[in-house]
Amino acid sequence: MASAEAAAWSSSSSLETDSAPVPETAGTAAAAAVAAAARMGPGARVSKAALATKLLSLSGVFAVHKPKGPTSAELLNRLKEKLLAEAGMPSAELTKRKRQTLKIGHGGTLDSAARGVLVIGIGRGTKMLTSMLSGSKRYTAIGELGKATDTLDSTGKVTEEKPYDQITQEDIEGILQKFTGNIMQVPPLYSALKKDGQRLSTLMKRGEVVEAKPARPVTVYSLSLQKFQPPFFTLELSSCANVLELTRTKQGPFTLDEHALPEDKWTIDDIAQSLEHCSSLLPAELALKKPKPEDSPEHGLSCEHITLNETKGEDGEIKTC
Question: Where are the beta strands (DSSP E) in 29-178?
Fold first, then answer.
């Protein structure tokens, strides 16, 4: 099998937000957590209350390991469900939209067929996610010569087959230079980019006519051939091909091997430790940056908000706590 590694930076970024359901009455989720803990005994009551408090206090940016299969949004929901369950705050009780206190989101969408680093923001860390979109990224891709698909990856329908016997390792290495440096990249039609609020990939699967987005500047810092074992390769040549596997091994300062938490580490304590560790990877001023209002909602960043408790002040203003 063959794979290539590229670190790329894209000048475009965007913001997509989704609001999750919240409690029907003020304090419902927090009260339910305490009540559930009380039924389990004094020891459990202290434990659940402490976990709920700790969950609410989490703030910053960390990374998780997204497996192949779920979308980035589905993975975020899975993470949220695990944290709420651990803290004794079942999401079934969150039924009405209100102001938000606990925020969680992801920055830099990974396709469902891809795996690797997915950056997560929690609490005030959600304001830092836009900065993650513009950071450098590194991928490892495995492709197959001789077959082209309508989606450009292994999930699509084969649209063309060509011989690949004439393709050599020298051919691939010789073409690498054309894909490095500052280049103009036309986003594929099967992508997370949106038109009228809907993903292009969704529109394509419906059979609707979709126009390609204009080319945009991308910087590819390096691109190298790691293995060559026909029919597997990583770049487009005079034959045809599709991507079999795509793994994001780095996003900003976060790497897959060192920082991305696997699902068995999606606990409040493990995330708290990761937040503390990852804070040293970010510039001190980054936490002060906020998403720019002019950023277009094309792709990449999703936030979910949950209100856990609300009180009404003397002036009648609803305050969150």
Answer: 60-66, 102-107, 115-122, 137-145, 147-149, 158-161
CA distances from 150 to 63, 69, 133, 276, 309 (A): 31, 19, 27, 43, 48
Going by the DSSP 8-state scheme, the letter that residue 101 receives in this structure is S
Q: What is the pTM of this model?
A: 0.70
Average pLDDT, stretch 161-178?
87
Question: At residue 94, what is the residue type?
Answer: L
Q: What gap in Å lies between CA 136 and CA 277, rounded to an integer? A: 20
Tokens of 197: 């609020």
119/106 Cα distance (integer angstroms): 6
The tens digit of pLDDT for each residue in 179-233 reads: 888 989 888 888 778 888 888 888 888 888 888 889 989 888 888 888 888 988 7
CA nearest 162: which of 175, 174, 178, 145? Answer: 145
Q: What is the largest CA-CA distance in the chain?
A: 79
Whether pLDDT at 242 is above 80? no
Q: Which of left, alpha, beta for 116 (phi over 0: left; psi -120 to 50: alpha)?
A: left
Please give the structure tokens belonging to residue 131: 């900065």
DSSP 252-311: TTEETTTTEEPGGG-SHHHHHHHHHHHHTTS-GGGGG----TT-BSSSSEEEEEE---EE
Q: Residue 175: CB partners within 8 Å, gap ≥ 6?
A: 235, 236, 237
Which residues, including other chains, have CB under 8 Å from residue 41's CB and lie 6 or more apart?
none
Active site residues: 111
